[in-house]
Sequence to fold (87 residues):
Amino acid sequence: MAKRYLKFPALSLKLGGRSRASIHRDMRDRGFPKPINIGPNSVVWNEDAVDIWLEELAKKQYEPVSVAPGAKRGRLRKSKEANHVSL
Fold:
């Protein structure tokens, strides 16, 4: 059987309409398969690797991530007090 590869629109549909940002977050945090570069502006994902990832995800018990409401994952902001210089 020949290997099948998915471009982003097909991958998004396979994952229930997930956005590009969500898929990249899954690559960073949850072990989602990395894309394969096939050109300067084109990537694909191996469908078999995506299917294996989905099967492993289905076997895991759901554990919510504890993040405070309104908190973001990016860089921490510098507090105003740290920037304030007193003379």
The mean pLDDT is 83. Residues 5-59 form one domain.
